[in-house]
Amino acid sequence: MGLKMPTAYSKRLGRDITIEEATKNKIKNELYCSNKNCQIPLTFVDTFKRKNSLVSAYFRRQGKVEHSEECDFNTLGQVNIAARNSDGALASINDKKYNLRLNLISNAIKGSDSSKKKESTVTDVENKKQPNQNFISSGKISAYLSTMKKIMQIKSKIEDESELKNLIEIQFNGENIRWSDFYFEFNDYEKCFSKLMKNKINYPLCIEGEIKSFEKNNADFLGIYRNFCFFVN
Protein backbone atom coordinates (compact mmCIF):
# COMPACT_ATOMS: atom_id res chain seq x y z
CA MET A 1 0.00 0.00 0.00
CA GLY A 2 1.39 3.39 -0.88
CA LEU A 3 0.78 7.05 -1.59
CA LYS A 4 1.89 9.03 -4.62
CA MET A 5 5.24 10.65 -3.96
CA PRO A 6 6.38 14.16 -5.06
CA THR A 7 10.08 13.37 -4.68
CA ALA A 8 12.38 10.35 -5.03
CA TYR A 9 16.00 9.54 -4.35
CA SER A 10 18.02 9.21 -7.57
CA LYS A 11 20.90 6.78 -7.22
CA ARG A 12 22.45 8.20 -10.39
CA LEU A 13 22.49 11.77 -9.04
CA GLY A 14 23.00 10.82 -5.39
CA ARG A 15 20.20 13.07 -4.13
CA ASP A 16 16.45 13.58 -4.00
CA ILE A 17 14.79 14.83 -7.17
CA THR A 18 11.37 16.32 -7.90
CA ILE A 19 8.74 15.32 -10.44
CA GLU A 20 9.79 18.29 -12.59
CA GLU A 21 13.43 17.16 -12.63
CA ALA A 22 12.50 13.59 -13.48
CA THR A 23 10.28 14.78 -16.33
CA LYS A 24 12.77 17.27 -17.74
CA ASN A 25 15.78 14.96 -17.55
CA LYS A 26 13.83 11.76 -18.35
CA ILE A 27 15.00 10.04 -15.16
CA LYS A 28 12.92 6.91 -14.78
CA ASN A 29 15.34 4.32 -13.40
CA GLU A 30 17.30 3.74 -10.20
CA LEU A 31 14.76 5.65 -8.10
CA TYR A 32 14.11 4.97 -4.43
CA CYS A 33 11.88 6.22 -1.60
CA SER A 34 13.37 9.41 -0.20
CA ASN A 35 12.63 8.27 3.37
CA LYS A 36 16.00 7.03 4.64
CA ASN A 37 14.31 4.38 6.81
CA CYS A 38 12.44 2.97 3.81
CA GLN A 39 14.24 3.41 0.46
CA ILE A 40 12.16 0.87 -1.47
CA PRO A 41 12.52 0.98 -5.29
CA LEU A 42 10.19 3.39 -7.09
CA THR A 43 8.98 3.96 -10.62
CA PHE A 44 8.08 7.19 -12.39
CA VAL A 45 4.50 7.59 -13.68
CA ASP A 46 4.07 10.29 -16.32
CA THR A 47 1.00 12.51 -16.66
CA PHE A 48 -2.02 10.64 -18.02
CA LYS A 49 -5.74 11.12 -18.61
CA ARG A 50 -8.47 9.51 -16.48
CA LYS A 51 -12.20 10.20 -16.73
CA ASN A 52 -11.54 13.21 -18.95
CA SER A 53 -9.22 14.70 -16.31
CA LEU A 54 -5.43 14.89 -16.30
CA VAL A 55 -3.61 13.08 -13.51
CA SER A 56 -0.31 14.75 -12.66
CA ALA A 57 2.93 12.78 -12.82
CA TYR A 58 4.16 11.10 -9.64
CA PHE A 59 6.52 8.50 -8.18
CA ARG A 60 5.09 5.21 -6.93
CA ARG A 61 6.19 1.87 -5.55
CA GLN A 62 7.82 -0.54 -7.94
CA GLY A 63 5.76 -3.72 -8.08
CA LYS A 64 4.15 -4.78 -4.80
CA VAL A 65 7.01 -3.85 -2.48
CA GLU A 66 5.56 -2.11 0.59
CA HIS A 67 6.82 1.04 2.28
CA SER A 68 8.10 0.56 5.82
CA GLU A 69 5.41 1.00 8.50
CA GLU A 70 7.04 4.24 9.69
CA CYS A 71 7.23 5.74 6.20
CA ASP A 72 5.00 8.76 5.52
CA PHE A 73 3.94 7.13 2.25
CA ASN A 74 2.62 3.92 3.80
CA THR A 75 -1.17 4.08 3.33
CA LEU A 76 -2.10 1.93 6.32
CA GLY A 77 0.30 3.87 8.51
CA GLN A 78 -1.37 7.17 7.58
CA VAL A 79 -4.85 5.72 8.18
CA ASN A 80 -3.67 4.51 11.61
CA ILE A 81 -2.56 8.06 12.45
CA ALA A 82 -5.93 9.45 11.35
CA ALA A 83 -7.73 6.88 13.52
CA ARG A 84 -5.69 7.68 16.63
CA ASN A 85 -6.72 11.33 16.42
CA SER A 86 -10.33 10.79 15.30
CA ASP A 87 -12.01 10.69 18.74
CA GLY A 88 -13.94 7.59 17.69
CA ALA A 89 -15.08 8.72 14.23
CA LEU A 90 -12.66 6.26 12.59
CA ALA A 91 -13.05 3.05 14.59
CA SER A 92 -10.87 -0.03 14.25
CA ILE A 93 -12.53 -3.25 13.07
CA ASN A 94 -9.28 -5.21 12.91
CA ASP A 95 -5.58 -4.53 12.28
CA LYS A 96 -6.16 -3.53 8.65
CA LYS A 97 -9.77 -2.34 8.56
CA TYR A 98 -11.53 0.77 9.87
CA ASN A 99 -15.10 2.04 10.05
CA LEU A 100 -15.77 5.72 9.28
CA ARG A 101 -18.87 6.52 11.37
CA LEU A 102 -20.58 9.42 9.62
CA ASN A 103 -23.42 9.53 12.16
CA LEU A 104 -21.01 10.78 14.85
CA ILE A 105 -19.95 13.65 12.60
CA SER A 106 -23.53 14.49 11.59
CA ASN A 107 -24.88 14.39 15.14
CA ALA A 108 -22.02 16.47 16.52
CA ILE A 109 -22.51 19.20 13.92
CA LYS A 110 -26.29 19.35 14.26
CA GLY A 111 -26.13 19.26 18.04
CA SER A 112 -23.58 22.06 18.12
CA ASP A 113 -25.59 24.14 15.66
CA SER A 114 -28.68 23.86 17.89
CA SER A 115 -26.70 24.93 20.94
CA LYS A 116 -25.17 27.85 19.05
CA LYS A 117 -28.59 29.07 17.94
CA LYS A 118 -29.90 29.04 21.52
CA GLU A 119 -26.82 30.82 22.84
CA SER A 120 -26.97 33.35 20.01
CA THR A 121 -30.62 34.17 20.77
CA VAL A 122 -29.80 35.01 24.39
CA THR A 123 -26.77 37.04 23.31
CA ASP A 124 -28.82 38.95 20.75
CA VAL A 125 -31.44 39.97 23.30
CA GLU A 126 -28.87 41.05 25.86
CA ASN A 127 -26.34 42.72 23.58
CA LYS A 128 -28.44 43.45 20.49
CA LYS A 129 -25.74 41.95 18.30
CA GLN A 130 -25.90 39.68 15.28
CA PRO A 131 -25.59 35.93 15.94
CA ASN A 132 -22.08 34.56 16.07
CA GLN A 133 -21.19 33.27 12.58
CA ASN A 134 -17.81 31.72 13.46
CA PHE A 135 -17.19 28.17 12.26
CA ILE A 136 -16.88 25.43 14.88
CA SER A 137 -13.23 24.75 15.64
CA SER A 138 -12.85 22.90 18.95
CA GLY A 139 -13.54 19.66 20.80
CA LYS A 140 -14.96 16.63 19.08
CA ILE A 141 -16.02 18.52 15.96
CA SER A 142 -12.46 19.68 15.38
CA ALA A 143 -11.24 16.08 15.70
CA TYR A 144 -13.92 14.86 13.30
CA LEU A 145 -13.13 17.54 10.72
CA SER A 146 -9.41 16.82 10.99
CA THR A 147 -10.15 13.13 10.43
CA MET A 148 -12.20 13.86 7.32
CA LYS A 149 -9.46 16.15 6.05
CA LYS A 150 -6.79 13.48 6.62
CA ILE A 151 -8.83 10.80 4.83
CA MET A 152 -9.45 13.05 1.84
CA GLN A 153 -5.74 13.93 1.68
CA ILE A 154 -4.92 10.22 1.65
CA LYS A 155 -7.50 9.60 -1.07
CA SER A 156 -6.06 12.34 -3.28
CA LYS A 157 -2.55 10.86 -2.98
CA ILE A 158 -3.23 7.12 -3.01
CA GLU A 159 -1.75 5.06 -5.85
CA ASP A 160 -4.70 2.69 -6.11
CA GLU A 161 -8.10 3.91 -4.87
CA SER A 162 -9.24 0.36 -4.17
CA GLU A 163 -6.71 0.31 -1.30
CA LEU A 164 -8.63 2.96 0.62
CA LYS A 165 -11.93 1.21 0.00
CA ASN A 166 -10.42 -1.97 1.44
CA LEU A 167 -9.04 -0.11 4.46
CA ILE A 168 -12.02 2.09 5.32
CA GLU A 169 -15.69 1.21 5.14
CA ILE A 170 -18.20 4.04 5.50
CA GLN A 171 -21.20 3.68 7.78
CA PHE A 172 -24.16 5.86 8.67
CA ASN A 173 -26.69 4.80 11.32
CA GLY A 174 -25.71 1.15 10.96
CA GLU A 175 -25.86 1.06 7.16
CA ASN A 176 -22.82 0.74 4.91
CA ILE A 177 -22.35 3.55 2.37
CA ARG A 178 -20.45 2.92 -0.86
CA TRP A 179 -17.52 5.22 -1.54
CA SER A 180 -19.10 6.09 -4.89
CA ASP A 181 -22.16 7.37 -3.00
CA PHE A 182 -20.11 9.38 -0.52
CA TYR A 183 -17.30 10.94 -2.55
CA PHE A 184 -18.18 12.78 -5.75
CA GLU A 185 -15.45 13.83 -8.18
CA PHE A 186 -15.58 16.50 -10.91
CA ASN A 187 -17.42 14.22 -13.31
CA ASP A 188 -19.95 13.04 -10.73
CA TYR A 189 -21.84 16.31 -10.14
CA GLU A 190 -24.88 15.23 -12.15
CA LYS A 191 -25.06 11.95 -10.27
CA CYS A 192 -24.77 13.77 -6.93
CA PHE A 193 -27.44 16.34 -7.88
CA SER A 194 -29.80 13.59 -9.03
CA LYS A 195 -29.45 11.67 -5.77
CA LEU A 196 -30.00 14.82 -3.72
CA MET A 197 -33.11 15.76 -5.69
CA LYS A 198 -34.52 12.26 -5.14
CA ASN A 199 -33.74 12.47 -1.41
CA LYS A 200 -31.48 9.43 -1.66
CA ILE A 201 -28.76 11.02 0.45
CA ASN A 202 -29.36 11.65 4.15
CA TYR A 203 -25.77 11.44 5.33
CA PRO A 204 -22.65 13.67 5.17
CA LEU A 205 -21.03 13.68 1.74
CA CYS A 206 -17.87 14.95 0.09
CA ILE A 207 -17.77 16.89 -3.18
CA GLU A 208 -14.50 17.50 -5.00
CA GLY A 209 -14.16 20.71 -6.97
CA GLU A 210 -12.89 24.27 -7.15
CA ILE A 211 -14.76 26.42 -4.64
CA LYS A 212 -15.36 29.91 -6.02
CA SER A 213 -17.22 31.30 -2.99
CA PHE A 214 -19.22 30.16 0.00
CA GLU A 215 -22.23 31.53 1.85
CA LYS A 216 -23.48 29.84 4.98
CA ASN A 217 -27.23 30.18 4.59
CA ASN A 218 -29.47 27.64 6.26
CA ALA A 219 -27.52 24.59 5.15
CA ASP A 220 -25.75 22.53 7.78
CA PHE A 221 -22.09 23.06 7.08
CA LEU A 222 -19.28 20.69 7.91
CA GLY A 223 -16.20 22.31 6.44
CA ILE A 224 -14.03 23.22 3.46
CA TYR A 225 -10.47 22.00 3.04
CA ARG A 226 -8.73 23.07 -0.17
CA ASN A 227 -10.75 21.45 -2.96
CA PHE A 228 -12.98 19.37 -0.73
CA CYS A 229 -16.31 20.38 0.74
CA PHE A 230 -18.33 18.48 3.34
CA PHE A 231 -22.03 18.88 4.05
CA VAL A 232 -24.53 17.35 6.43
CA ASN A 233 -28.04 16.84 5.08
In short:
The chain is α+β, with helices and mostly antiparallel strands. The chain has six helices and 15 strands.
What features would you describe in this structure?
The protein has 233 residues and is α+β, with helices and mostly antiparallel strands. Helix content is 33%, strand content 26%. Strands 2-1-3-4-7 form a five-stranded antiparallel beta sheet. α3 (102-127) crosses α4. The model is unreliable at 114-137 and 218-228 (pLDDT under 50).
Radius of gyration: 21 Å
Overall mean pLDDT score? 79
The CA-CA distance between the termini, in Å, is: 33 Å
In percent terms, what proportion of residues is strand? 25-35%
For the report, how would you describe the main beta sheet?
5 strands, antiparallel
How many β strands by DSSP? 15
Helicity, in percent? 25-40%
Order of helices and strands: EEHEEEEEHEEHHHEEEHEEE
Poorly predicted sequence stretches spanning 5 or more consecutive residues: 114-137, 218-228
Structural class assignment: alpha+beta
**Helix count, per DSSP?**
6
Strand order of the largest sheet: 2-1-3-4-7
